[in-house]
Specification:
The chain is an alpha/beta fold and about 475 residues long. The protein has three domains: about 10-130, no CATH class; about 155-310; about 340-460. Helix content is about 60%, strand content about 10%. Strands 1, 2, 3, 4, 5 and 6 form a six-stranded mixed β-sheet that branches. Strand 1, helix 16 (about 350) and strand 2 form a beta-alpha-beta unit. Helix 6 (about 100-135) runs antiparallel to helix 7, helix 7 (about 135-145) packs antiparallel against helix 9 and helix 9 runs antiparallel to helix 10 (about 185-205).
Length: about 475
């Protein structure tokens, strides 16, 4: 009975614990499986180590979110709690407390390192947040250059935001390049720049200030070196569908640079003989920005462009001027004195070649009158003389007439006719010899005028 009772007592006595629960829990808190190794549970240490590595890799790569951080935190708490329970749930006697030193020697550096990285991550995140608020990509990228894999594990959400900022800065760099090209007058690049900003705001919210800095840089780059390039941009900005602060900044930039660009572009177009385009720019200045310092220049530009357009038009008409008369308001008015003339009409050179130099010009821009001459005809009969027809040997009479030229005179300044007449040029008649072919029963012939007689006939036309 006594032996049996002793066997029962030996079987019922609980086995003595050989591991300290606090040491095992601290060892597991390192996430390195040290607690399980202290407890002699090597397989469990390997298994949980593999799970830990997998979780850390996923946290640093695929699942960089707050909820997955929570999963890892719960895993850490579970390992720590399981180590405590596995070792019995209370502290061991003094002789095995050396295990605590081992566990603490492993867990403490890990926890301290995690804490330090977390603090560093917070500082990086704060610097990036400040940079986003200032619109400073350089500051943000400098801070994010300090990020390494440990930050991805310890503070995954910060790295996600950091990656978004890196992408935003790369996006804005490309957009800034578009705007730089746009400043040369490339409207398509400007449109691409605005599309880039719109895409950034849609896909990467929180970087609006950085986008504003790029946009302000574009507006600050105005005006372009060439005034007409500036106007290409301002014209396109008006057509761009902007809203909110973008629209306000665009309107301010346009109002700041456009008046000077309009006058400068108008002047440049005048030098390239693009007179209609130049006049349009001058008129735009007076219409949109009345009363500026450029008003007088614009008014003068309109006058000069209008004269140039009129002159180019009357020059292009040539002899068609007589059927489509037009005004050149830069011409001198018709009036007393010599009215220099340009003459259009068949065979007129025979007579205009006799004119004094001050009467005639070949450049309509120098003329006061445009003389449109019709075909010559027989004017007043001067004399009739008898000649022998060599073919029939009969006597025939030839009547000699003045040279009659229908003439319409247009004042170039107004494009309106000032008179319509027929000029008759006198001359000598009844020459000694007339070719026999011209002698017949109904022969008529023109007198032969001298230079003075031609000038006398036209004098009252040119000289009022």
């Amino acid at each position: 009975m006594t032996i049996g009772r002793m066997d029962f007592q030996q079987q019922a006595a609980p086995p003595a614990r050989t591991h300290d629960a606090l040491a095992v829990a601290l060892g597991n808190a390192s996430l390195l499986g040290v607690g399980y190794l202290l407890a002699g549970r090597r397989k469990l240490a390997v298994f949980t180590g593999i799970v830990t590595v997998l979780l850390v890799v996923l946290l640093g790569t695929t699942f960089r979110t707050g909820w997955f951080e929570l999963v890892v935190l719960l895993w850490w708490l579970a390992l720590t709690a399981h180590g405590w329970l596995l070792a019995g749930g209370r502290a061991q006697r003094i002789k095995v407390r050396r295990e605590r030193s081992i566990a603490l020697g492993v867990a403490l550096p890990v926890l301290v390192l995690v804490g330090l990285i977390r603090v560093d991550s917070a500082m990086i995140g704060s610097s990036v947040t400040e940079a986003r608020g200032n619109g400073d990509c350089a500051q943000a990228l400098t801070a994010l250059n300090q990020v390494w894999f440990a930050h991805y594990v310890v503070d995954a959400p910060m790295t996600v935001e950091g990656d978004a900022t890196v992408r935003a800065c790369q996006w804005l760099k490309a957009t800034k390049s578009k705007f730089t090209v746009a400043l040369t007058g490339d409207v398509e690049s400007m449109k691409a720049g605005f599309q880039g900003l719109a895409g950034l705001r849609g896909e990467l919210p929180g970087h609006e200030k950085m986008a504003d800095v790029v946009l302000d840089g574009f507006f600050g780059g105005l005006p372009s070196k060439e005034p007409c390039d500036t106007l290409s941009i301002t014209d396109a900005l008006r057509a761009e569908k902007l809203s909110g602060s973008e629209a306000d900044r665009s309107a301010h930039a346009v109002a700041r640079v456009e008046p000077a660009a309009l006058i400068g572009c108008g002047d440049k177009l005048m030098t390239t003989q693009s007179w209609a385009a130049a006049r349009t720019r001058y008129e735009q200045l007076l219409s949109q920005y009345p009363g500026t310092e450029f008003t007088a220049r614009a008014q003068d530009g309109i006058k000069r462009a209008t004269l140039a357009i009129e002159l180019a038009h009357v020059r292009s008409l040539g002899k068609n001027y007589c059927s489509k008369p037009a005004a050149y308001s830069g011409a001198a008015p018709y009036g007393p004195g010599t009215n220099r003339s340009v003459v259009y009409g068949d065979n007129t050179y025979v007579y205009t070649s006799k004119f004094p130099a001050e009467w005639i010009t070949t450049d309509i821009g120098d003329a006061v009158l445009v003389l449109c001459a019709g075909d010559k005809d027989y004017g007043a009969q001067v004399k009739t003389c008898a000649y022998r027809n060599q073919g029939t040997n009969a006597r025939e009479n030839i009547s000699f007439h003045n040279i009659a030229i229908p003439l319409t005179a247009y004042e170039l300044r107004t494009g309106k006719p000032v008179f319509q007449t027929t000029v008759e040029i006198g001359g000598t008649s009844c020459p000694f010899f007339v070719p026999g072919s011209e002698v017949n029963a109904s022969s008529q012939s023109y007198v032969t005028p001298s230079d003075d007689q031609v000038r006398e006939a036209f004098s009252y036309v040119v000289n009022e």
